[in-house]
Design a protein that fits this description.
Blueprint (H helix, E strand, L loop, with lengths): L2 H11 L1 E6 L3 H10 L6 E6 H4 L2 E2 L1 E5 L5 H24 L10 H10 L8 E6 L3 E5 L10 E6 L6 E3 L2 E6 L6 E5 L5 E6 L2 E6 L2 E11 L2 E12 L5
């Protein structure tokens, strides 16, 4: 990862394209897991909770090898950027260099449920704007990876909104290719103003699919209570 480029993009827009993260064989293997029960701890139907239309499943431990590897390696690259953000907004919390230590912090306070997930959308499905917080301890960045080829569906754009104080919200639509990822703010990010840095709230979602089927992998770096 080019940390300078990623940091600059995150600071200016709240997200950064990461390029290809998964090989085609790993994508196929992950998609083949979705119909199974054993690799997952829970199955969420979005409509039942007012989250949108579609569904997703949280992985159980042990995570599939590609997911576990990405979670560890991406965390190590993103932790310095996360700590830079904490410094800019004047927060006292700092994040450890290693992901196992971040998980240790979560587990010590009862956040023990793994949060990586796979999402499945069909025609007419969408995901409302939201934040993936899950507990007191959270890592301020997360990653989404597109598992479907863009020829397999229409619509279903990944959307980010930035809620600026005393101003209207700003929207970004992120274009991804199969196997490529995007990193973005979980909750809030620092933004430079005339009087220094201030906090802006970020939310993310998926626009309505017009046709086809879309799978994504979500990598959240804190575990859930």
């Amino acid at each position: 990862m080019d940390q300078t480029r990623v940091s600059e993009a995150l600071n200016s827009r709240g997200y950064a394209n990461l390029g290809p993260l998964l090989a085609s064989k790993d994508i196929a293997a992950l998609k083949a897991l979705y119909p199974q029960k054993e690799p997952f701890r829970s199955h969420i139907i979005m409509r039942r909770h007012g989250f949108g239309e579609g569904e997703y499943k949280y992985f159980s431990n042990p995570l599939p090898k590609p997911v576990a590897s990405l979670r560890n390696e991406l965390y190590s690259s993103l932790a310095p950027i996360a700590n830079e953000w904490q410094e800019k907004i004047g927060a006292d919390i700092r994040y450890p260099d290693m992901h196992k230590d971040m998980l240790g912090r979560c587990h010590a306070d009862g956040q023990t449920r793994p949060t990586p997930l796979m999402l499945k959308y069909g025609a007419g499905d969408f995901n409302c704007l939201h934040q993936d917080l899950y507990g007191e301890h959270l890592f301020p960045l997360q990653v989404v990876i597109l598992l479907s080829d863009v020829s397999e569906y229409e619509g279903g754009e990944f959307v980010l909104t930035e809620q600026r104080p005393r101003m209207q919200s700003r929207v970004e639509v992120v274009q991804l290719q199969q196997g490529h990822g995007v990193v973005f703010a979980v909750n809030e990010r620092p933004k430079l103003g005339t009087r220094g840095y201030y906090r802006v709230k970020m939310r993310h979602g998926v626009s309505q699919l017009r046709s086809g089927e879309r799978f994504t992998l979500g990598i959240i770096f804190h575990d859930a209570a």
